[in-house]
Specification:
Layout lengths: L1 H6 L4 E4 L4 E3 L1 H11 L4 E4 L1 E2 L27 E2 L5 E4 H9 L2 H4 L5 H14 L5 E4 L2 E2 L24 E3 L3 H13 L28 H9 L1
Length: about 210
């Protein structure tokens, strides 16, 4: 964000992992339609219970975050976009430095929650997408979506580079009948680490849906 503030001319800061596919012909129209200086756009993640097991890859110690729940936010790996005014407050109102967490996506969620709580409305805007391996059947990757028209998502996190390249070509063509099942061939046989601490968030996610 500091580099963005000093060097970029854009009205929006975007962070995305390099294993995420972005359908730009779906993403850009949504940004144009919904974009503003207070935007916070991405795949929504609800409130969550911090994992206090230091053996887990998404461990969050009490020393960095003492509350029982993370506020809602956007998935980090699949990418999020933030309006420039929000970035300004994170950097220059001390919000970022005062709330530096182990978990990046949850940290950003805390920053936006803090800005909102202080009286500046944050515009939460959801994007359709897959935020990780747990959100689709990775055991049968080539059987999920046959054509481009079947794949309705704008963001898809956790893919091989070859898969992303293949989907990018389909997105550019934007032909709903274009075959994409072969795009997922590089995903066949991949093994994923079990989601530890995930059970902790079952209740929190259910509560979020009832709100």
């Amino acid at each position: 964000m500091k580099h963005f503030w000093s060097n970029a001319q854009s009205d929006y800061f975007m962070k995305v992992d390099d294993d995420t596919f972005i359908s730009w012909n779906r993403y850009v129209p949504q940004l144009i339609a919904k974009g503003n200086q207070y935007l916070y756009m991405g795949i929504p993640i609800g409130e969550g219970v911090p994992c206090r097991d230091e053996n887990f890859q998404w461990y969050e110690p009490f020393s960095t975050y003492k509350k029982e729940l993370f506020p809602k936010g956007m998935s980090g790996g699949s990418g999020y976009t933030i309006g420039k005014s929000n970035v300004d407050m994170v950097l220059h109102a001390g919000i970022g430095e005062a709330n530096t967490l182990y978990n990046e996506d949850r940290a950003v969620g805390v920053w936006m929650f803090t800005i909102n709580k202080a009286g500046t409305k944050v515009d939460y805007e959801g994007v359709e997408g897959i935020d990780g391996f747990w959100a689709w059947d990775t055991t049968k990757p080539m059987e999920q979506w046959k054509t481009w028209g079947d794949l309705k998502y704008t963001l898809f996190h956790g893919l091989e580079g070859a898969t992303i390249g293949c989907l990018a070509k389909a997105s550019e063509l934007d032909n709903k009948d274009e075959s994409i099942d072969q795009c997922f061939k590089p995903e066949v046989g991949k093994v994923y680490e079990e989601l530890q601490c995930a059970a902790l968030n079952t209740g929190a996610q259910a509560d979020e849906k009832r709100k």
